[in-house]
Design a protein that fits this description.
This protein has 389 residues and is of the alpha+beta class. The protein folds into 3 domains: 108 residues, Butyryl-Coa Dehydrogenase, subunit A, domain 1 (Orthogonal Bundle); 114 residues, Butyryl-CoA Dehydrogenase, subunit A, domain 2 (Beta Barrel); 144 residues, Butyryl-CoA Dehydrogenase, subunit A, domain 3. The strands form 3 sheets. It has a 4-stranded mixed sheet with strand order 1-4-5-8. A 4-stranded antiparallel sheet has the order 2-3-7-6, with no helix packed on it. Strands 9-10 form a two-stranded antiparallel sheet. Helix 1 packs parallel to helix 4, helix 6 packs antiparallel against helix 9 and helix 10 packs antiparallel against helix 11. It is globular and about 80 Å long.
């Protein structure tokens, strides 16, 4: 099935990503899913091809591409039936490091991330008691001479077991002493290779999908003050742009999922013959797929509009959140149509629909619930009273 390419100038990147993905067929992903195994070979192949270094400047060994190109890379991975969740954090954490990291931090880490010898895959923000209420987090980083001492817990910190580095958001000023709700939080770039087993404990969480997610405990962890990104207390502001990037990139993955489901569903509808005719002849099969296709096109437009605004240096909070909402809905609608088209066979592992169905369901909940996006739009755009907090 041919889809309109909203970024024809990036067709070469799309084709290159597809070639890498073709080395990892459906059987590979089924085996990883069944064993709850990290797809290290796939991540390694993407690194070798340079796609995970897309947003790292050329002076540090990367490609120096923008967020739009990164979105194309992640979309194509999902369109090919693969899953970028094993490595996408390396894309959306780049903004915080590139925009606010020191020259010393960039020189120390970016070349290694670019050549694949270092992995920045873990983003420690969410906590058991705060969830999406980031400003209520309780992990503390207390200054002690030339170090900080970190105590606390993070949850849903995906890929911490397979990451060399972690971006950590912690409170450096007690909430009651902070000048404002957003003040007093700081971002640190931690070297997990030195810390795991020395105050840092990583515990896997077995979940509905193979997402390599964990909870991470910090007990009197001493980290050098040079780990601090930017100025102390401004961490929340630093990660906001990273969150916009994250939502745009995840939305691009959803578009890729939607395209995979639509192609899979349409092919099955053409091939499956019941009562002497292909089931795709029936409008009851056609219409859900056609409607999902139309909604995917609309969502795709706002995803790349948000990416272009981000690349222009704007603050596309409304567009990024809208993109995440609409793309997550589009992928879920396409998943429903595809599964319904397959009927009972959609639940069989060998068709891959049930695996992708589980994977794309996540994006209704994370990295931010679609309900909270609606709250954000109602308050920020429509001027309605705040419904939470």
């Amino acid at each position: 099935m041919n889809f309109y390419d909203v970024n024809p100038a990036l067709a070469e990147i799309r084709d290159g990503v597809a070639q890498v993905c073709h080395e990892f067929p459906a059987e590979y992903w089924r085996e990883c899913d069944s064993a709850r195994r990290y797809p290290g070979e796939f991540v390694g192949a993407l690194m070798k091809a340079g796609y995970l270094a897309a947003m790292i400047p050329e002076e540090f060994g990367g490609s120096g591409l923008n967020l739009t190109a990164a979105a194309v890379i992640l979309e194509e991975i999902h369109r090919q039936g693969c899953n970028a969740a094993a490595c996408h954090a390396q894309m959306y954490t780049m903004g915080t490091v590139l925009r606010h990291g020191s020259d010393a931090q960039k020189k120390a880490y970016l070349p290694g991330i670019a050549d694949g010898s270092l992995r920045l895959q873990a983003f420690g923000v969410t906590e058991p008691t705060s969830g999406t209420d980031t400003l209520a987090l309780k992990t503390i980083a207390r200054r002690d001479g030339d170090d900080y001492i970190v105590n606390g817990q993070k949850i849903w910190t995906s890929r911490a077991e397979y990451s060399d580095l972690m971006l950590l958001l912690a409170r450096t000023t007690p909430r009651e002493q902070a000048k404002s709700k957003t003040d007093g939080l700081s971002v640190f770039l931690l070297d997990l290779r030195k810390l795991v087993g020395h105050g840092v404990t990583v515990r896997p969480i077995r979940a509905m999908i193979n997402h390599s997610t964990t909870e991470v405990f910090f007990e009197n962890v001493r980290v050098p003050a040079s780990s601090l990104i930017g100025e102390e207390g401004n961490g929340f502001r630093y990660i906001l742009s990273g969150m916009n990037a994250e939502r745009i990139l995840i939305a691009a993955e959803c578009i890729g999922d939607a395209k995979w489901f639509l192609e899979k569903g349409a092919d099955y509808a053409k091939d499956r013959v019941i009562f002497g005719a292909p089931i795709g002849k029936n409008q009851g099969v056609q219409f859900p797929l056609a409607r999902a296709y139309a909604h995917m096109l609309a969502a795709e437009a706002i995803v790349y509009r948000a990416a272009s605004l981000y690349d222009a240096g704007k603050d596309p909070g409304v567009e990024a959140n809208s993109a995440k909402l609409l793309a997550a809905d589009a992928s879920w609608e396409a998943a429903e149509a595809c599964l319904q088209t397959h009927g009972g066979f959609g639940f069989a592992e060998e068709y891959d629909v049930e695996r992708k169905f589980r994977e794309t369901r996540l994006y209704q909940v994370a990295p931010i619930s679609t309900n909270l996006i609606l709250c954000f739009l109602a308050e920020r755009v429509l001027g309605l009273p705040k419904s939470y907090g």
